[in-house]
Amino acid sequence: QDKLISVTWDDGKTTNYPHIYLRDNCRCSSCFDPQTQQRSISNAVYHNYANATIKTARVDDKNDKLYLEWINDGEHTTSNFELDWLKAHRSITYDDIEVNPVTKQLWGSEMKNNLPQFDYNKILNDDSELHRWVRCMLKVGISLLVGLPEDIGQVKKFVNRVAYLRKTCYGSTFKIHTDKGDDLTTIAYKNGGLAMHTDLVYYESVPGILLLHCLRPAKQGGENQVADGFKAAEQLKASHPEYFDILTKYAIRYQDEGTDVGLSNFNQIAYHPVIRLNYNGDIKQIAYADHARCSKLIAPSDKVLSFYNAMTQFLQYAYDPANMVQFKLQSGCMIALDNYRIMHGRTGFEESADSIRFIEGGYVDWDEALSRMRVIEK
Amino acid sequence: QDKLISVTWDDGKTTNYPHIYLRDNCRCSSCFDPQTQQRSISNAVYHNYANATIKTARVDDKNDKLYLEWINDGEHTTSNFELDWLKAHRSITYDDIEVNPVTKQLWGSEMKNNLPQFDYNKILNDDSELHRWVRCMLKVGISLLVGLPEDIGQVKKFVNRVAYLRKTCYGSTFKIHTDKGDDLTTIAYKNGGLAMHTDLVYYESVPGILLLHCLRPAKQGGENQVADGFKAAEQLKASHPEYFDILTKYAIRYQDEGTDVGLSNFNQIAYHPVIRLNYNGDIKQIAYADHARCSKLIAPSDKVLSFYNAMTQFLQYAYDPANMVQFKLQSGCMIALDNYRIMHGRTGFEESADSIRFIEGGYVDWDEALSRMRVIEK
């Protein structure tokens, strides 16, 4: 009953194109706009493809085209396809969905003193270096940029090189320092330690890549802590599959309410599982932040203990000395983090009034970084 | 074996607080920062809550507090809780996850000439009207704003009233007109019809609310078509549950490659199921755009026909005359659409060289609209 057109290729293999597939991808001027390379079907009638049936099919060797005549397709009676187009679609489905063009390299403490390092100015001036940086962020999820001027504005300059800043309730970029007055919203702007987390989990639409530019480090302490959340999740999956399931199934409610200097009041609430899976079951996103985690739980009451145990075990993997890397970002350096994967925190610090720790941060979304990578590739 | 503290309330009901829950929510100055209302635990040791055990518990009636002594919790030996805090958390889990504070009102063609209407200037000047608008967008997903000046910049002005523009590869705002030269990326900037779709599905992070301000309508045609994608999905679920499953399970690959006047080149690719479900099984997002849908399919080859049939049936519900609403946006009017729910398109149009159709569009994310709503509520 399946309506199919069989095409046998030079290598002897065959593709069976369903009629409906060829109808959907008709390249005629009513169905497809060559200028924009987009489908241009605007008439709802055409959405009833199921009836469309190929009456005749003919390959013209002179111009390498397949000519089709349709019945039961309204006023639409013919299609033709370049054989090259058919060849490019000899597999009409993806064998493997290449959501990520780069295989992720999970890492642990061997990354200490081995963070992938990039020259800031080289990225600003060299497309292939920018491309290498995006690929590194896809693969490793962390990189150290060196050679930055020690003034405000470098995060914006860098992100504009990629695309544009992803603004948030903390501004286009945000300034991490302790001189914000009394109207504080987040412990990130105090001098205590900050447990490892991913940023802005109180957004449904979590920013993709986090950049932290150190203008002035703390005199004492304020060391960065980072861990590969994907590795911790994979370890959890291997050792405690039931905990892994719990952390993919039950979300956490996050909230952040307040303001920052010169900005509007906000009250952000979002729900994320600690481990979010892709539709194909791969790990897509780690979302976790102790400081913004709400007290009320989403997990049902008979799962509360398991949920806590799962969360605890996940964090123990993240903080495992074999996994966590600790270092102190120096002035003129910027760290870039995949905010869907890498957890980051810091130790508490001391500073003097005339020399406060100062970090400028900002975000660029993965959509834009990947787009830039593809554009450079062309 | 469960370690629990039972509290019986005045109404005779009891809450059993697991020890680990009280440990996690300890309000002492090492664990919680009252200024920012955030957890301030920065020491990984504390993540090993499972061992922490309450040795003594005592309610002090004089100051309405519960005092706890801990064992097996390192140097952390005591907690105390305001009884009011415990009362506010007498249910430690959500009975119902109120992701959306407003019940959605699904709609069809009865919305014709009945679109919820708002005065643009009133929203600009009146917080309660802005609040009413966000609630309407949550509930109905569409609204008509009237009384706008007929010049560029109103989308930005309006969105800045809510929060800030969500920038995309088409700019901070985008101008829909046919006078873009030959370097066209999207059929939206031509004068043909545009099948009903949701915007920017070639972003993983799809913008939340779409605003379209009409500065000048087409002389002939260019009518807007809208349909409630959630209603179409619910109808599909009721009539063809197997099709509904397919559209939640298999993603579509979307791509948009090109540029717009004065902007950088982009090459956006993203994957979305037509119907994305929330973790609790509710419909979360409709994502569909014929013009950016790739020819290669994610659905496996033995599901291709079912996938097409499912997509077709979904679109037939969307285009059902009982569901779709058609109208012509006039100059000085702006339409707002929940881009996670409402599909929109337009009919082809004709215009004269001295009077081209001109629409300015832009986005604001749901995170920000909901944040503004909550801030106004306080």
TrEMBL record, chains A, B:
<keyword id="KW-0124">Carnitine biosynthesis</keyword>
<feature type="domain" description="Gamma-butyrobetaine hydroxylase-like N-terminal">
    <location>
        <begin position="2"/>
        <end position="86"/>
    </location>
</feature>
<dbReference type="InterPro" id="IPR042098">
    <property type="entry name" value="TauD-like_sf"/>
</dbReference>
<dbReference type="InterPro" id="IPR010376">
    <property type="entry name" value="GBBH-like_N"/>
</dbReference>
<dbReference type="GO" id="GO:0045329">
    <property type="term" value="P:carnitine biosynthetic process"/>
</dbReference>
<dbReference type="InterPro" id="IPR038492">
    <property type="entry name" value="GBBH-like_N_sf"/>
</dbReference>
<comment type="similarity">
    <text>Belongs to the gamma-BBH/TMLD family.</text>
</comment>
<dbReference type="Pfam" id="PF02668">
    <property type="entry name" value="TauD"/>
</dbReference>
<dbReference type="GO" id="GO:0016706">
    <property type="term" value="F:2-oxoglutarate-dependent dioxygenase activity"/>
</dbReference>
<dbReference type="GO" id="GO:0005739">
    <property type="term" value="C:mitochondrion"/>
</dbReference>
<keyword id="KW-0408">Iron</keyword>
<dbReference type="Pfam" id="PF06155">
    <property type="entry name" value="GBBH-like_N"/>
</dbReference>
<dbReference type="GO" id="GO:0046872">
    <property type="term" value="F:metal ion binding"/>
</dbReference>
<keyword id="KW-0560">Oxidoreductase</keyword>
<feature type="domain" description="TauD/TfdA-like">
    <location>
        <begin position="100"/>
        <end position="352"/>
    </location>
</feature>
<comment type="pathway">
    <text>Amine and polyamine biosynthesis; carnitine biosynthesis.</text>
</comment>
<keyword id="KW-0479">Metal-binding</keyword>
<keyword id="KW-0223">Dioxygenase</keyword>
<protein>
    <recommendedName>
        <fullName>Gamma-butyrobetaine dioxygenase</fullName>
    </recommendedName>
</protein>
<dbReference type="InterPro" id="IPR050411">
    <property type="entry name" value="AlphaKG_dependent_hydroxylases"/>
</dbReference>
<dbReference type="InterPro" id="IPR003819">
    <property type="entry name" value="TauD/TfdA-like"/>
</dbReference>
